Amino acid sequence: MSYTTKQRRALIEALERHRDENLSADQIIALLGNDAISKSAVYRNLSALEKNGCVKRITVSGTKRIFYRYTGSPECREHLHMECFKCGKTFHMNIPSTNALIENVRRDSNFEVDSGTTVLHGVCEKCRKG
Predict the structure, then answer these.
(1) CA–CA gap between residue 19 and residue 56 (Å, rounded)
(2) The domain 73-130: what is its CATH number?
(3) Which end of the chain is more exposed for a tag (fewer CB within 10 A), N or C?
């Protein structure tokens, strides 16, 4: 039988409030603030949440930096994600565009795209203008 501890609940709630952000473990601990979760408990819970598909672990190429993004909401599972190289913000691709892209890839390449974990990288509108 599986159950959710008070610490894991607090962690999930913090991640849900920041679901479109890539956060380091230290940033997550800071978000938890008064919930007093040890760093080791945060890592343990992040690992468990990653295994069950609620968290995506992101490594920054060429560095040792690791970030985590919450993907446990149904909204995340239905969208492809777009991530800005400059600001690091993650955006959900709209459903019609997601569905069209996935269908085109399936038809043209006979390849099944995992929409909950696929990330397109580029530069967002705000960073292009700024």
Answers:
(1) 11
(2) 3.30.1490.190
(3) N
The span from the CA of 101 to the CA of 8, in Å, is 35
Q: Are strands 81-84 and 66-70 parallel, antiparallel or unpaired?
A: unpaired
| Distance from C-alpha of 44 to C-alpha of 8, rounded to nearest angstrom | 10
CA distance 82 to 118: 8
pLDDT band (50, 70, 90) for residue 37: confident
Evaluated on CA atoms 122, 100, 95, 48, the torsion sign reads: negative
Distance between CA atoms of residues 22 and 6, nearest Å: 23
Return the CATH class of domain 1-72: mainly alpha
pLDDT in tens, 67-77: 898 887 776 66
Instruction: Considering only residues 36 and 53, tell me which one the structure prediction assigns the higher pLDDT.
Output: 53
Q: For the chain, give every domain's residue range.
A: 1-72, 73-130
Q: Please write the tens of the pLDDT for every residue from 54-91.
A: 888 887 777 788 889 888 777 666 778 888 888 878 88
